[in-house]
Amino acid sequence: MGDMANLFGTGRFAQPSGQEEATDEAQEAADEAAEEVRLRLAVDCGDVEAMSVLGALLLRRGDFDGAESHLRAATAAGDRAAANNLGVLLHQRGYADEAAGWWRVAAVAGSAAAAHALGRHFRERGDEPAAEYWLCQSAEQGHVLGAYALADLLEHRGDDAGAERWMRAAAERGHREAAYRLARTLDRRAGRHGGGDDKAHAAAADEAEQWYRQAAARGHRRGALHLGTILEKRGELKEAGRWYLTSAKDGEARAACALGFLLRDAGDTESAAVWWLRAAQDGDGNAANALGALHAERGETQTAERWYRAAMDAGDDNGAYNLGLLCAEQGRTTQAEQWYRRAAYAGHREASNALAILLLRAGDETGAEPWFSKAAEAGSVDAAFNLGILHAGRGEERPALRWYERAAAAGHTEAALQVGMARLRAGDEREAERFLRCAAGGGSAEAAYRLATVLDARRPPPPAHELGEPAQEKSECEEWYERAASQGHRRAQVRVGMLAAARGDVVEAARWYREAAEAGSRNGAFNLGLLLAREGSEPEAVVWWRRAADAGHGRAALRLALVCARRGELAEGQRWADLAVSLGPEEVGERAARLRDALRQELSA
After folding, report:
1. DSSP per-residue letters across 2-26
2. How far is 274 from 291, CA to CA, in rounded Å?
């Protein structure tokens, strides 16, 4: 006989879904009653299979006394399904050893479900060799639960290859938890491989996604969550949102939180808040932090603080860190320090860095340094950069450079600039160029300017430009000057203006000089004045020279003195000449002194 009345095959008794219409339930009840009458008539006629099926029906209903007599009778007649279900009944009644005896009878007779039950019995007793034997018997007969239980046992024992084999077998037969766990195994394997071009990495990642998809399709909420995460990283936001929604509706708080972030990024903060609230109420600290940040942005600080505290209560250290940020913004420095300390002691690296900055601003450099170090050692790039600043401020160049290099290696733009400048001072131009390129590529205007000066000093002088020849293309150093200039770097703006003037592009030169001058560059103001004077706009040139001279530009003061002398404004010219002498440089001072003396003689004549 087959396992027609196998109850233990699913690992639990079948339960009504509760979703059928009342009429359907009534019809099923009527059908079951009719089936029971038919089975009882067959039992009265000595039908062994009917005894087994009737016993299973009564067992499912909870009528243990009625079921036991029929199951024992069928078992005595050699029905292996009845032996298995008799084991289930005895197990339910607390007679585990007697249940195991009947499962053994059924398993020896070839029942895969009984072998699975017997394997689980021995594992619960701590007899792993016996458990493995019977689970293997069940799995090799194609029993999906036996394959999954065997995989779980082998994984526990550290037999990764065997565990994966049987987990795959269970997954292929429709076991959703096996599909999810197989995906997690493949995911970890993909993470252990190198870069994204590695074939093994790509293959493992692709297969993991497929198993996540199968688990999710079978209703596994964590499988749906992980599938959504994969799709979100790949930019497939619409499908990711669908899986997050599926998982969130099944009660997965992390999926509800992730869905909230997806909606926020799409501009729907109200819907995001709904899902964050649902996740936070289910104990998700990340969602509570997100709600706190949302209320903080709206100026609802008390509500924000409440959610940050909820995040902290959920075990999320970001809650304490965010409370510190909130207090710091409100000027509650003492409370901010307390919250930063709480998060920092829990290992929150950004809180450690924030605490160190707070202490440093309060003048406690000694107390700040260990927290900077702790944050940096934990991987905080900002803390590594701050340690560099701290050591540089003390004149400790070598440790400062070491921390700058560490931050630069992690992509910190300003740290790369500092390393580049240090390499320039040491005369290592090639290494300096490498770090300056990193910093300039990261958006540092100063690095772009410094890189341009390095390249500028290296390039050969331009050849003489013959009439009718096309103008040369811009060199790399000019491109870096222009990038720095477009970011508002005043010296770069002046340099770009000079290069444009050298090409004869007066309009472009004037534009860049004017931008630099209006931003406060005295060189820009002086050069703009020269350009305007050459174009015949001396009154406007005087305005810019005056601005440059007032900012300490000696050449501009000399130009003003000359203009005044030519106009006959001798006293004013003498005043500007005196200023030029004091400002220098040396050759300007000498010329200004001679002009001043001549003006004095003219005035005293």
Report:
1. --TT-SGGGSS-----S-S-HHHHH
2. 10
Q: Which residues, in sequence order, are CB contacts of 272 under 8 Å at separation 6+?
A: 259, 260, 261, 262, 263, 264, 290, 294
* The amino acid at 528: L
Tokens of 422: 């240090």
| 218: helix, strand or coil | coil
**Scanning the structure block, which residue is given the tokens 């619960």?**
124
Give the tokens for residue 165.
């084999």
- For residues 342 and 356, the answer to whether their CB atoms sit within 8 Å is no
End-to-end CA distance of the chain: 137
Note the pLDDT tens digit of each residue in 306-340.
999 999 999 999 999 999 999 999 999 999 999 99
Contacts from 397-403 at CB under 8 Å and sequence distance 24+?
397/422, 403/376
Residue in this structure with the two tokens 């999926």, named with its chain if needed: 255
Read off the tokens for 487. 């970011």
C-beta of residue 118 within 8 angstroms of C-beta of residue 104: yes
Q: Which of 136, 132, 131, 137 is nearest to 106 (CA)?
A: 137
How far, in Å, CA of 24 to CA of 28, rounded? 6
d(CA 119, CA 95): 16
Task: Convert the pLDDT of each residue in 233-248 to its tens digit.
Answer: 999 999 999 999 999 9
**Which of these ranges, 6-20, 254-268, 547-561, has the smallest mean pLDDT?**
6-20
Model confidence pTM above 0.85? no
What sign has the CA pseudo-torsion 178, 184, 187, 188? negative
Q: Which residues contact 374 (CB under 8 A, 6 or more apart)?
A: 344, 349, 352, 383
| 90-94, 322-326, 588-592: range with highest mean pLDDT | 322-326
CB-neighbour burial class of residue 129 (10 A; exposed 0-12, middle 13-18, buried 19+) = exposed
Sign of the C-alpha dihedral computed for residues 574, 578, 583 and 586 taken in this order: positive
CA distance 155 to 332: 52
Cβ atoms within 10 A of the Cβ of 82, count?
A: 34
